[in-house]
Amino acid sequence: MLDRIRNAFQILSRDADVERAIKEVQRALIAADVDVTLVAQLAKKLREAKVPKGVPKSRYLTKLLYDELVEILGGKARPFPVIPQRIMLLGLYGSGKTTTAAKLGHWLQKRGLKVLLVAADTHRPGAYDQLKQLAEKANLGFFGIKGEKDPVKVVEKALKQVADVYIVDTAGRTTLDDELIEEVKRIRDVLIPDKTLLVIPADMGQAAGREAKRFKEEVGVDGVIVTKMDGSGKGGGALSACAVAGVPVYFIGTGEHIRDFEQFDANKFISRILGVPDIEKLVELAQETEIKPEDILEGEFDIEKFHKQIEATMNMGPIDKVLQMLGISSVPKEMKKMTEEKFKKYDAIYKSMTKYERRHPEVLQDPSRIRRIAMGSGTTEEDVREMLRDFKKAQKLMKKLKRAGTRRRMEKMLASGQFPIMK
Ligand SMILES: Nc1nc2c(ncn2[C@@H]2O[C@H](COP(=O)(O)OP(=O)(O)OP(=O)(O)O)[C@@H](O)[C@H]2O)c(=O)[nH]1
Ligand SMILES: [Mg+2]
Q1: Cβ pair 126, 188 in contact under 8 A
Q2: Is the separation of the CB atoms in 243 and 220 below 8 Å?
Q3: Residue 359: Cβ-neighbour burial (10 angstroms; 0-12, 13-18, 19+)
Q4: CA 94–ligand 1 middle distance (angstroms)
């Protein structure tokens, strides 16, 4: 889907060829399970667009397509409130509720709130342990009563604990049946949630809209979290269907890791498809890795700093995701593998260098040192030379940036872990 959409933008901006661009967009959206009537409306708008005098047709149409796609996906983002609150998570079996409880908890805790995860799924054996483990891993509060069959009792006791945010994980069912409705209502009456969030997997496609509507009517929901955006081609359909159903999508889940979670913003979503770097998300991720820009900016740029940059980038998660946020989209598998392997190799080489060498890279001209480092790190001499070449490139870039006095830009780049050799 994403390649096609990018393609459509190119066709419009290069040739202003409306029909060809429409074809690409139509194919992409329908493959992503977006409602055909929405797709038809979009095509009509593009075809009938009246380009104002003096504005280049290609530019006008590109902007129009951009705005329309954002609208289809839900329009303006609704930021999730970062305040003390009670949250109830709902959803059908296996939609990702328990994982999402931990992701959302982590997200809120990072923003300064004390979070308690509450195990109110008393049906599925293992649900208690699953949530507990996730809570421990993410350093979040946890409350549950092992063996308790009544979720209401768990919630009652949980509310006696001290926390800013209570996130209640509930049981899933295969359908929204009377029993589930009844249980949700009982929990709701005790919890009195500030936000009831429905968790829907992306692969539901446009059926997500029907589900959101049904849950909204039966038990009331304030918003949706769409999970598994990473593994599904139908995410676009799920997002647009929720927009049509009038239920805001607050977050999307983009992987199994706790950090694979972000506020949903249709604008950013489309920008990323188009290859515009998502600096905010990068900075957010980098903050978790706790590398400060000044660690790299102050003093001479030596191999220690070069290594810090590599570490920051590696700690941010899978390379392909980091690259995507840098605006390098659809990362080919080979490139992902290459970058990851390269970084691992560089890390090993770094560890075989002496402190003096790291701080005085000029001594590394000496072939005997290179031989020693290659042997020590289990790499080849050529690998060591390659690392030194990459280091010199990075060093040059740093110098250039410093000279240009673009310190703020550089700080942002470093904070985001953005790494010169990846360019
Ligand atoms: N790839 C991917 N997997 C996810 C995502 N969110 C959840 N999962 C996986 O989906 C599976 C089900 O997730 P759970 O959180 O257990 O789902 P649940 O809704 O609590 O399931 P029940 O309690 O059994 O109803 C797990 O293997 C998760 O790792 C996501 O955003 N991306
Ligand atoms: Mg669960």
Answers
A1: no
A2: no
A3: middle
A4: 6
* Mean predicted confidence (pLDDT) in 298-314: 83
Write out the residues surrounding ion ligand 2, Cβ under 5 A: 97-98
Q: Give me the pLDDT at residue 270, please.
A: 85
Using CB atoms within 10 Å of the CB of residue 366, give its burial: 0 to 12 exposed, 13 to 18 middle, 19+ buried. exposed
- Condensed to tens digits (0 to 9), the pLDDT of residues 149-170 reads 999 999 999 999 999 999 999 9
Which pLDDT band holds residue 316 (cuts at 50, 70, 90)? confident
Tell which one of 227, 251, 320 to mutate to probe ligand 1, the residue whose CB is within 8 A of the most ligand atoms. Answer: 227
Dist. CA 172 → ligand 2 center (Å) = 7
Q: Pocket around ligand 1: residues whose beta carbon is below 6 Å from it?
A: 91, 93-99, 121, 124, 127, 172, 227-228, 230-231, 253-256, 260
- Structural domains of the chain in order of their starting residue, each with its CATH number: 2-72 (1.20.120.140), 85-273 (3.40.50.300), 279-422 (1.10.260.30)
- How close is the Cα of 132 to the center of ligand 2, in Å? 11
Burial (0-12, 13-18, 19+ Cβ within 10 Å), 175? exposed
For residues 302 and 398, give the distance between their C-alpha atoms in angstroms, rounded to a whole number: 11
**256: DSSP letter:** S
pLDDT above 60 for 421: no
Please choose, from the candidates 389, 391, 398, the residue with its C-alpha nearest in 3D space to the C-alpha of residue 300.
398
Q: How far is CA 156 from the centre of its chain?
A: 34
Which pairing describes strands 85-90 and 195-201: parallel, antiparallel, or unpaired?
parallel
* 11-57 residue pLDDT tens: 888 888 899 999 999 999 999 999 999 999 999 999 999 988 888 88
What's the pLDDT band for 413 if we cut at 50, 70, 90?
A: low
Closest ligand to 93 CA?
A: 1
- Both tokens of 297, joined, read 């900016």
| Closest approach atom of ligand 1 to CA 173 | 25
pTM: 0.76
* 124-148 per-residue burial string, b: 16 or more CB within 10 A, e: under 16: eeebbebbbebbeebebbbbbbeee
Q: What percent of the chain has pLDDT over 90?
A: 61
DSSP 202-215: GGGTTHHHHHHHHH
